[in-house]
């Protein structure tokens, strides 16, 4: 290994690490799972649909990565608990937890019923909380851990019917700070990545309106909307030793969407 490779590997390699990535079968989660796996981690992707999960794992194993999938519904507490145990049984207790599974139901607030509120909070906020409770203390005991949440612009500002979704994401950033307070002294950093508008299945309906898509792109400084792959580098950074002194932070990966 030449000197620069050795240096980069010292900073960013995830060799020997284990990771659990929720929502790892699609969009941002899939790109993050791929990035962690290609950087050396053994990765378990968790979501509901077996087909996309299998497809993700097949792609990674074909690339020589160590990956596996667990099908579970993170919309119920029992589902979260079962998925956590199954995921930890594959490659062992995770060193890295990425919470990317999320839903965005967009009724106008006046029409937003308790069902939408409950479903949103369950997947977007309670599942990350419960997974943190399950894995955080073990990470702290072992002296290394990385918890990475995926939040949203709507944690910071209201637009396109933020409704319950924005509330769940705002709370998720607060959860990251609480987790950072609890576990950072023991080598467990907890941060969030804050996307702008990223072209994924989550907003397929919105993508059918080219004018809105173009307007969102124009709100960035880079001049385009996000791609799932834009999260690879930031995720590897936050999962690696290189970010040991970064905790409790919300880091935008948004093409400059949030700064003007
Ligand atoms: N795309 C954007 O513009 C954007 C912007 C800001 C924030 N985000 C956030 O980024 C994260 C990833 O979004 P994305 O755009 O990558 O979305 P996506 O392509 O729709 O992926 C969502 C993932 O979550 C899983 N999921 C949803 N409900 C679940 C449940 N009840 N139990 C288990 N898994 C579940 C999905 O798989 P199954 O359906 O098979 O379960 C899928 O793997 C989300 O937290 C989202 O809020 C996205």
Automatic annotation (TrEMBL):
InterPro entries: NAD(P)-bd_dom_sf, Sc_DH/Rdtase_CS, SDR_fam. GO terms for molecular function: oxidoreductase activity. It comes from Streptomyces capoamus. Keywords: Oxidoreductase. SUPFAM superfamilies: NAD(P)-binding Rossmann-fold domains. PROSITE patterns: ADH_SHORT. This is 2-deoxy-D-gluconate 3-dehydrogenase. Pfam families: adh_short_C2. Belongs to the short-chain dehydrogenases/reductases (SDR) family.
């Amino acid at each position: 290994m030449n000197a620069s490779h050795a240096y980069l590997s010292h900073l960013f390699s995830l060799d020997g690490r284990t990771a659990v990535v929720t929502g790892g079968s699609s969009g941002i989660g899939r790109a993050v799972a791929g990035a962690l796996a290609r950087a050396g981690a053994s990765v378990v992707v968790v979501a509901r649909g077996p087909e996309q999960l299998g497809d993700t794992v097949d792609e990674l194993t074909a690339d020589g990565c160590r990956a596996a999938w667990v099908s579970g519904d993170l919309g119920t507490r029992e589902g979260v608990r079962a998925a956590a145990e199954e995921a930890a049984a594959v490659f062992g207790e995770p060193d890295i937890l990425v919470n990317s599974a999320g839903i965005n139901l967009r009724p106008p607030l006046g029409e937003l019923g308790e069902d939408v509120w409950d479903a949103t909070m369950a997947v977007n906020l309670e599942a990350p909380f419960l997974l943190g409770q399950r894995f955080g203390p073990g990470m702290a005991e072992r002296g290394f851990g990385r918890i990475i949440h995926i939040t949203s612009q709507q944690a910071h500002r209201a637009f396109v019917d933020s409704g319950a979704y924005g509330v769940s994401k705002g709370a998720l950033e607060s959860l990251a700070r609480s987790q950072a307070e609890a576990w950072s002294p023991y080598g467990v950093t907890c941060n969030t990545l804050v996307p702008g508008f990223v072209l994924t299945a989550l907003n397929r309906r919105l993508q059918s309106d080219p004018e809105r898509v173009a307007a969102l792109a124009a709100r960035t400084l880079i001049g385009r909307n996000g791609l799932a792959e834009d999260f690879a580098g930031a995720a590897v950074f936050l999962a690696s030793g290189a970010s040991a002194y970064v905790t409790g932070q919300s880091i935008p990966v948004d093409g400059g969407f949030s700064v003007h």
